[in-house]
Amino acid sequence: MPKRGKKYLEALKKIDPEREYSLEEAARLVKEISYARFDASVDMDVRLGVDPRHADQVVRGSVVLPHGTGRTVRVLVLANPAKQDEARAAGADYVGLEEYIQKIQEGWTDVDVIIATPDVMPQLGRLGKILGPRGLMPNPKSGTVTMDVAQAVQAVKAGRIEFRVDRYGIIHTSIGRVSFPAEHLVENARALLKEILRLRPPAAKGAYVRSLYMAPTMGPSIKINRAVLQNL
After folding, report:
1. 77 close to 97: Cβ distance less than 8 angstroms
2. Is 113 exposed, middle or buried (0-12, 13-18, 19+ CB in 10 A)?
3. How many of the other CB atoms lie within 10 Å of CB of 128?
4. At 29, phi and psi to the nearest 5?
């Protein structure tokens, strides 16, 4: 077991290990136990009763958080010239096609989200080994492959996040910053959980949501009572 630092142990004392907290309690507490000197991210971990080894049990989607993520998102739009002006007008940070495909092949991935139009997807096939492991490959299920590039860019800039269950059946994603008011963290968490419930695979058996945790980037995690799922 790794040795914990003094600040971590002090934060841990504020959490009752035998208790499951409400979303409202967790949102207030997560602000108290964060000891980072920067505006840390607030993350949620949702353990699901699915087996991601089976394609029909992979949970993947996106949701627009009501209060955003608190971070600036750099967006690249890959499209033919007919759609490029639309992307720029919507606020995309980078817009183009061949020049950015070349840059990516050379190792450039200095963006947070890549949006592409369906007609250019065949050209992106050779980028799969680079973009896939980084979670940057455009995908229709996450809304990043679309002809409506303006709407997609605006949604990402407004706080849309993408999430996907990992190989252990856990969804891990940010829902805001420690500086957010507690009520904003609660509303963002509710939006995320509601979408995860909506995406329950028909093949999933038994309890779908096994456990819920909220934690700051630097600090211990807070267990949340699953009863919150009944009031979403």
Report:
1. no
2. buried
3. 10
4. -70, -35
What does pTM read for this prediction? 0.78
Return averaged pLDDT per consecutive 10 residues of the chain, 232 residues in all.
79 91 96 91 96 93 89 92 95 95 94 95 92 89 91 89 92 95 97 96 93 94 94 83
Domains and CATH numbers, the chain: 17-68+160-231 (3.30.190.20), 75-158 (3.40.50.790)
Q: Beta 170-177 vs 41-48: how paired, if at all?
A: antiparallel
Nearest to 41, CA basis, from 20, 23, 68, 16? 68
* Residue 167: φ, ψ to 5°: -70, -15
Residue of 212, 133, 223, 125 lying closest to 172 (CA atoms): 212
Contact residues for 175 (Cβ-Cβ < 8 A; gap 6+)? 42, 43, 44, 65, 69, 185, 188, 189, 192, 214
